[in-house]
Amino acid sequence: MRLDLYYAECCRIAEEQSAVLQEAKEKLKHGQTLSKLEQNGTLHGLQVLVENAIGKAKQLLKALNEPVPVSAYDAFARLHTKKMLSNEQLQQWNAAIGLRNRILHEYMTVDMALVLALVDQQGYQFIVDFLRQPMAMS
Fold first, then answer.
1. First to last CA, the chain
2. CB atoms < 10 A from the CB of 76, how many?
3. Model-level pTM?
4. Torsion of Cα atoms, 119 then 5 then 88 then 50, to 10°
5. Which of 4, 8, 75, 97 is deepest in the core (most CB within 10 A)?
């Protein structure tokens, strides 16, 4: 896929999933409880955002003619090595990947109260911002 098309799709997905999470945030802000369906939609929105970002990180490395690791953690570590992420940003990405892994593989142990606090505080915004950033075309 061409990088410009990939970037456009990243933005579309970021907007779509961000809107889902914003809707959940608004309900929480007004003291409403999310239904099980809404909770699952929230988890799915977070999962899709992180997976989209993992794909984008790998596409960035590919565009830079860098080896593309299989591991999501390694992809962001390589961006950090290339000075494209700060130490703090790398920590955020490691936490986001950990959350995504828990949603996918350890779904019985997901603490919804923590997830909802993350949504309420828009702790996912850095992911949306990353997905909206233009891709290096080199």
1. 15
2. 27
3. 0.93
4. 40
5. 75
Name residue, tokens 């992911």. 127
Q: Give how far the C-alpha of residue 44 lies from the chain's centroid of Cα atoms, to the nearest Å.
A: 11
Q: What is the pLDDT of residues 57-92, one digit of tens each?
A: 999 999 999 999 999 999 999 999 999 999 999 999
Report how far apart, in Å, the C-alpha atoms of 111 and of each of 38, 50, 126 are: 15, 18, 21
Buried b (16+ CB within 10 A) or exposed e, 41-63: bbbebbbbbbbbbbbbbbbbbee
Whether residue 48 contacts residue 17, with contact meaning beta carbons closer than 8 Å, is answered with yes
SS3 sequence of 101-122: HHHHHCHHHCCHHHHHHHHHCC
